[in-house]
Amino acid sequence: MNIFRLAGDMTHLLSIIVLLLKIYATKSCSGISLKTQELYALVFLARYLDLFTDFISVYNTIMKVVFIASSLAIVWCMRLHPLVKRSYDKELDTFRHYFLIGGTFVLALVLNEKFTLQEILWAFSIYLEAVAILPQLVLLQRSGNVDNLTGQYVFFLGAYRAFYILNWIYRYLTEPRFTRWIACVSGIVQTGIYADFFYYYFISWKNNSKLKLPA
Amino acid sequence: DKQPETHDEL
């Protein structure tokens, strides 16, 4: 464990907690893509199957449970909470995310570290996480609504990406056999798509703040 | 055969 990875895990967790608190506090999820949140929950469920079989550390186990619980809590809020679900932009959140699930699963069948169920699902979760933000990006392009996409959420999501890339550079430099090509290449693609999301977020945020200026 | 690395990253 290095400081970059710890910071990356903390900012990743904070981004999920900040979003959950925002949705729960305002009882609104307008502007949030349920599909992206479902894909994130699927990423954690597919990746943390080894929760009960391989014990790596207390930290690792606790964080896996917290990631699964918090991402499912967001999906539960948006799907079932009587007040929140009314504010879901169902007609705008139309990205066909099943193609993302199918495509990344096929890729995981081809590109994996070992052709075992656990490794295929792990690679699937890595590829899926890279593209999971796409429904949110499309929804943001369509709605321009950043009410619930707080600046903190976007900041922590970006910090998570930055710290993980620093973590891989650090591990590559300090560990003789650090070769995690699947995680590194997919993580770089994920960071690129995040940068695109950040660009649309910044544009929308600027337009909204212009709109809100006193006439 | 090469055992895949245990995935210690979250």
TrEMBL record, chain A:
Query: Entry's Pfam families?
Result: ER_lumen_recept (PF00810)
Q: Does Cell membrane appear among the keywords? A: no
Q: Which InterPro entries match?
A: ER_ret_rcpt
The transmembrane residues are 55-77, 98-115, 121-141, 153-173, 179-202
Name the principal localization, coarsely classed.
endoplasmic reticulum
**Could you tell me the Gene Ontology terms of the biological process aspect for this record?**
protein retention in ER lumen; protein transport; vesicle-mediated transport
**Compartment(s) where it occurs, according to its Swiss-Prot or TrEMBL record:** Endoplasmic reticulum membrane
A single GO molecular function, which one?
Answer: ER retention sequence binding
Annotated membrane topology:
Multi-pass membrane protein
What are the protein's UniProt keywords? Endoplasmic reticulum, ER-Golgi transport, Membrane, Protein transport, Receptor, Transmembrane, Transmembrane helix, Transport
Any one cellular-component term (Gene Ontology): endoplasmic reticulum membrane
Asked if the keyword Transport belongs to this entry, the reply reads yes
**Hey, which family's this protein in?**
Belongs to the ERD2 family.
Q: What is this protein called?
A: ER lumen protein-retaining receptor
Lineage, broadest ranks: Eukaryota, Viridiplantae, Streptophyta, Embryophyta, Tracheophyta
